[in-house]
Amino acid sequence: MIKIVAKNFIKEDKMDEFIALAKNLVEETNKNDEGCLKYELFQDMNNPNVYTIIEEWENGEFLQKHIASKHFKEIILQIDPCCEKPGEMNIYKKVE
Amino acid sequence: MIKIVAKNFIKEDKMDEFIALAKNLVEETNKNDEGCLKYELFQDMNNPNVYTIIEEWENGEFLQKHIASKHFKEIILQIDPCCEKPGEMNIYKKVE
User: Fold this and answer.
1) Which pLDDT tens digit goes with each residue over B28-56?
2) How close is the nearest chain A Cα to the Cα of B69, in Å?
3) What confidence score (pLDDT) does residue A89 get?
């Protein structure tokens, strides 16, 4: 299992637009993408313009397929202008 | 439910020491701390000195109790000298 923490920094005047797009991405991914164990959207309680998607995938191959999917590429293109700076993504493995 | 992402930057020569301490913290927290839904240790696959604890708590009160607990305070004191710089912590609520 791999875990993704994908942090986005959203412009003040683009929050509603971003939330609608991100919810759509969560829905499409959960519905369509094989190997997706979890895909959830969170808002930072101290920095309300920080929105983070926390994901679990069976393995890296399924993650790559997700990133190559039509819905991901289309929605990410629309999310991009909502961001005030580039996001941060960490890919993690669990320490047992 | 609240979600915590707590990122730690560990010195090269302190990795083993940190892992032992963090595993102990994970174990003590899962065993003792009320309201803890999940408390897991991850390693960044691209930056192996980045270790992140991803947590789920029923609410902020249980998180505060955890932070005030004897095991948390004792272990954090020992983890501190393993870190090359201050960690980062985000507290998130889920966007439904």
Assistant:
1) 999 999 999 999 999 999 999 999 999 99
2) 23
3) 97
* Residue tagged 């983890």 (tokens): B79
Closest residue of chain A to B41, computed from CA coordinates? A95
pTM, two decimal places: 0.95
Strands (E), A1-96: 2-10, 36-44, 50-57, 83-94
Tokens of A94: 């669990």
**Could you tell me the pLDDT band of residue A66, with boundaries at 50, 70 and 90?**
very high
Give CA–CA dist B34/B57, Å, rounded.
9
Provide the H-helix boundaries in B33-96.
Answer: 60-67, 70-79
Tell me the β-bridge partners of B64.
none
Contacts 24+ apart (CB under 8 A), B70-74: B71/B25, B71/B28, B71/B29, B71/B32, B72/B25, B72/B28, B72/B29
Instruction: Count the helix, strand and coil residues of chain B and give each as a percent rounded to the nearest 5.
Output: 45, 40, 15
Candidates A27, A47, A55, A90: best to mutate against B (most CBs of B within 10 A) is A90
What Å distances lie between residue A11 and A46, A67, A77, B51, CA to CA?
Answer: 16, 23, 15, 29
- With contacts defined as CB-CB under 8 Å, which chain B residues touch A95? 19, 22-23, 41-43, 51
